[in-house]
């Protein structure tokens, strides 16, 4: 072919064969496409025939490769005189991102120094000698003379001359390959080269439906879609920092030799705020704040503008091939969600699917962290960086101790030889503020806890940061390039020491170890990450599996703070009033810093608080204090007495223990108080006639939960009510003492002694109101119990009263004279005499017998015997009058009227009797003769029925 013909061919290819569209976003720039000619072989005779003239031997081949839009490329010449040759001529062109179909033409030429170069026929198509192919730059499909990426094609020789005119050329076979092929994955990351450069066309319309932003064909690409709740957008620079950590990962791509990893954290869309989010298997009717509902929608509808799921971006979900896009991303993209907080996880920093074969879902949940927690973590940005990389690490097949050689997960946390953000000591820069953001970079390091060499460098090759380890639970930092005092005991150092070096309770409860014989092995993380997750049991949406608890804000804060704890017990769970209770207060420190300037304040249930200083306490240190208090006698029975102990302290920098850690700084201990509670009930006959007996029933009981001691029952009768043991017809028991009080009242006393809990007793006795009481009068008896308890406690007496109303009967109106009463002892019935005794006791013992509280017939007769002088005459008249009252012949309220009664201002029988009783209280001396005479006269008039007015 002449030069003009070749030029025309190139122009036509440029004009007619290129399809150019806007390029999708990517990092690699123009896409390389390579043609390699593998074999040239004469099909028709070519030895001194066809391409070569007689005498010129076999051809001297060279090739011409033309990429549309590029200058033609002429290959070097093959060795002279070869009818078959494998040249492996290679040409790579960087195809612009906008080109969709790239046309390529291959021509095979014979170099002829004498008669001009000759073009061989390599295509079966008539009228053309060039092999033509077209490569779809989206999916790598090859069409044209060759329909696959590798193969052979040969010409038809153009019978009859064809385009060669009268000088036909023989058919030559050319074998070649085009790379990358549709399945080529140069860096071995699971994405084809075409996907990494262009993306995917799911419906073969030559339009890219989904791209892989900034894909790196030379390195492992890891894609993570990041959504975030309102007000929880990652801080500026967080995603870049984590991507940067992957970019400098200590790993070399086995296929390309490129270093590091290409992590793509694709910040997508904001979702509505929720205080907490659930991250568990999707339950039926899951709430809108469930992780899987946020990701997939409820009901699950990832596609369409009305879809409620957020996985994939808005363009993905609106695409006609959304289902294909989402399916593609579910197989290739992890999904991370920045939320406010996790349901049931307090201030937990996040959650992630964790399995030896990886996972695809995780959350970062730092919205519940207080400003103090974030400050301890180095700020919100540092906390987000470390937590994001930590949770992502779980989905990449790492546990809190990394990953073992056999592929199993290592859950041992806080290993000193594991310097990775997967280690809680490294997740955030709270313990080592300058710790790098990375997974473990150095190789295997082993520490045997019962064979630790304190005399030599520990063999932690590659350690560039301080080693964080535990001594007795306290957090220590040491230079990993020097020998380490693992036991913390100082010199002399041992070559085979034993210590529990990963026991670091100040960092997190997950760093609590009970063994000092563990073999702690750490491996490099970067060379054993699990990039794919489709073979993980958690790849199915909604199946998150069992996940480890994660570092909490409290733990981050505790690691750099003193975190005092207090427990308290008392020696008496039950105590009586006046008892001494001893409280034992145990103070501990579970923080990462020694507690300084400590104090404990004990507040008893009653009384003033007591504050004492507490000596400095290292991590896991403790001490005990004892306090006492006295149970008040005035306490309510059954009351719970609560003592309180509160501790406070500062860390070694003098910073007070933060408020977030004070929940366990107060302890209480309860004692139930027991005291006696005496109760008394009093009842009396509701109504009686004057002089008749009243029955009193008094019941005491101890309603308290402790015995009453020295209990005494006293019942006080009013002055108008008479009691004597002789006249008492009650069921008893009788009183131990009967006291006539100066005010005329009478007190009956029973000594109850000790009354046990629920102890009770009843006293029943009788007493009689005076005959001088009138209808409607009332008498009230009062029962009082006094008592005490143990330890000399005394209690307020309890009192109850009982009231009786006086009634009367219509009098017979036939009072009897004194002489009649003297001569008629049969009329003086015991009941009548008892009524008399209740009204006036002066006749008891009147026969010179001892007064015994009951009026007998002889005593009554003695009062009537020979009443010839005063006061005997007046006494006899008085007894007769009271007997008339007792036998209801007259009543105390019966009106009387005579000249003498009127002069004396006396209107009733009762008035007259009380006047006479007043007279008898005075001696019958000369100055009282008139009064004695008047008194005798008025009673004589009453007993004679001369004065009564009925």
Automatic annotation (TrEMBL):
InterPro entries: CARDB (IPR011635), DUF11_rpt (IPR047589), Ig-like_fold (IPR013783), MetalloPept_cat_dom_sf (IPR024079), OmcB-like_DUF11 (IPR001434). Keywords: Signal. GO terms for biological process: carbohydrate metabolic process. Pfam families: CARDB, DUF11. It comes from the Bacteria. Residues 1-27 form the signal peptide. GO terms for molecular function: metallopeptidase activity. This is DUF11 domain-containing protein. Residues 562-645 form the CARDB domain. Residues 683-786 form the DUF11 domain. It comes from Herbidospora solisilvae.
């Amino acid at each position: 072919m002449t030069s003009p013909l070749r030029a025309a061919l190139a122009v036509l290819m440029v004009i007619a064969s290129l399809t150019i569209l806007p390029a999708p976003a990517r990092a690699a720039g123009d896409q390389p496409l390579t043609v390699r000619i593998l074999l040239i072989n004469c099909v028709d005779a070519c030895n001194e025939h066809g391409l070569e003239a007689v005498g010129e031997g076999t051809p001297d081949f060279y090739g011409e490769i033309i990429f549309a839009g590029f200058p033609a490329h002429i290959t070097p010449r093959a060795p002279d005189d070869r009818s078959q040759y494998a040249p492996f001529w290679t040409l790579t062109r960087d195809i612009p991102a906008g080109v969709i179909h790239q046309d390529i033409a291959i021509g095979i030429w014979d170099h002829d120094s004498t008669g001009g170069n000759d073009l061989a026929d390599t295509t079966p198509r008539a009228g053309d000698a060039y092999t033509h192919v077209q490569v779809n730059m989206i999916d790598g499909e090859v069409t044209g003379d060759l329909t696959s990426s590798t193969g052979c094609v040969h010409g038809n020789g153009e019978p009859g001359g064809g385009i060669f005119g009268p000088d036909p050329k023989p058919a030559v076979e050319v074998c070649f390959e085009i790379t990358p092929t549709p399945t080529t994955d140069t860096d071995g990351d699971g994405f084809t080269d075409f996907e990494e450069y262009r993306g995917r066309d799911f419906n073969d319309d030559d339009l890219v439906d989904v791209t892989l932003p900034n894909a790196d064909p030379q390195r492992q690409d890891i894609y993570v879609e990041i959504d975030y709740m309102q007000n929880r957008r990652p801080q500026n620079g967080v995603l870049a920092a984590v991507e940067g950590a992957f970019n400098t990962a200590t790993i070399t791509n086995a296929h390309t030799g490129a270093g590091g990893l290409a992590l793509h954290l694709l910040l997508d869309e904001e979702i509505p705020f929720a205080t907490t989010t659930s991250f568990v298997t999707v339950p039926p009717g899951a709430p809108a704040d469930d992780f899987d509902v946020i990701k997939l929608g409820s009901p699950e509808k990832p596609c369409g503008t009305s879809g409620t799921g957020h996985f994939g971006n808005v363009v993905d979900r609106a695409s006609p091939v959304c289902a294909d896009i989402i399916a593609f991303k579910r197989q290739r993209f992890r999904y991370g969600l920045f939320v406010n907080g996790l349901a049931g996880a307090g201030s937990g920093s996040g959650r992630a699917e964790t399995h030896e074969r990886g996972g695809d879902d995780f959350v970062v949940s730092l919205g519940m962290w207080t400003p103090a927690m974030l400050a301890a973590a180095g700020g919100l940005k540092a906390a987000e960086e470390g937590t994001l990389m930590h949770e992502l690490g779980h989905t990449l097949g790492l546990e809190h101790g990394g990953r073992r050689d056999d592929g199993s997960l290592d859950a041992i946390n806080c290993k000193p030889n594991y310097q990775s953000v997967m280690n809680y000591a490294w997740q955030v820069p709270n313990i080592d503020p300058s710790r790098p953001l990375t997974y473990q970079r150095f190789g295997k390091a082993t520490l045997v806890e019962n064979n630790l060499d304190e005399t030599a460098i520990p063999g932690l090759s590659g350690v560039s940061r301080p080693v964080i380890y535990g001594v007795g639970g306290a957090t220590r930092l040491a230079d990993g390039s020097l020998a380490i005092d693992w036991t913390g005991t100082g010199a002399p150092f041992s070559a085979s020491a034993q210590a529990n070096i990963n026991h670091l309770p100040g960092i997190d409860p997950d760093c609590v170890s009970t063994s000092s014989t563990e073999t702690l092995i750490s491996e490099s993380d970067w060379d054993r990450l699990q990039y794919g997750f489709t073979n993980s049991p958690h790849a199915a949406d909604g199946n998150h599996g069992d996940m480890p608890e994660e570092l909490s804000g409290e733990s981050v804060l505790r690691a750099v703070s003193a975190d005092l704890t207090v427990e308290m017990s008392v020696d008496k769970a039950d105590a009586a009033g006046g008892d001494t209770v001893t409280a034992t207060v145990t103070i501990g420190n579970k923080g990462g810093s020694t507690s300084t300037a400590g104090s404990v304040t004990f507040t008893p249930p009653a009384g003033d608080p007591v504050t004492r200083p507490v000596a400095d306490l290292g991590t896991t240190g403790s001490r005990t204090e004892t306090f006492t208090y006295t149970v008040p006698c005035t306490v309510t029975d059954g009351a719970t007495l609560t003592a309180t102990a509160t501790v406070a302290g500062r860390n070694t920098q003098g910073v007070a223990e933060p408020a977030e850690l004070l929940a366990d700084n107060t302890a209480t201990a309860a004692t139930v108080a027991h005291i006696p509670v005496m109760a008394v009930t009093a009842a009396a006959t509701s109504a009686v006639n004057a002089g008749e007996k009243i029955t009193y029933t008094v019941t005491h009981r101890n309603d308290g939960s402790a015995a009453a001691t020295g209990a005494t029952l006293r019942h006080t009768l009013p002055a108008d009510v008479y009691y004597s043991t002789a006249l008492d017809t009650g069921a008893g028991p009788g009183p131990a003492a009967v006291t006539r009080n100066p005010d005329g009242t009478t007190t009956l006393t029973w000594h109850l002694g000790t009354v046990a809990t629920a102890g009770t007793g009843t006293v029943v006795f009788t007493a009689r109101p005076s005959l001088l009481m009138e209808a409607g009068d009332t008498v009230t008896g009062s029962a009082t119990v006094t008592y005490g308890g143990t330890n000399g406690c005394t209690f307020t007496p309890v009192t109850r009263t009982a009231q009786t109303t006086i009634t009367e009967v219509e009098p017979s109106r036939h009072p009897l004279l004194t002489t009649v009463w003297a001569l008629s002892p049969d009329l003086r019935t015991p009941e009548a005499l008892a009524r008399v005794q209740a009204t006036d006791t002066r006749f008891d013992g009147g026969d010179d017998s001892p007064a015994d509280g009951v009026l007998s017939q002889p005593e009554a007769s003695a009062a009537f015997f020979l009443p010839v002088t005063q006061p005997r005459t007046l006494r006899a008249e008085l007894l007769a009058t009271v007997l008339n009252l007792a036998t209801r012949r007259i009543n105390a309220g019966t009106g009387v009227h005579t000249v003498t009664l009127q002069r004396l201002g006396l209107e009733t029988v009762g008035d007259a009797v009380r006047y006479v009783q007043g007279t008898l209280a005075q001696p019958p001396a000369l100055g009282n003769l008139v009064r004695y005479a008047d008194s005798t006269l008025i009673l004589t008039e009453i007993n004679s029925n001369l004065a009564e007015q009925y």
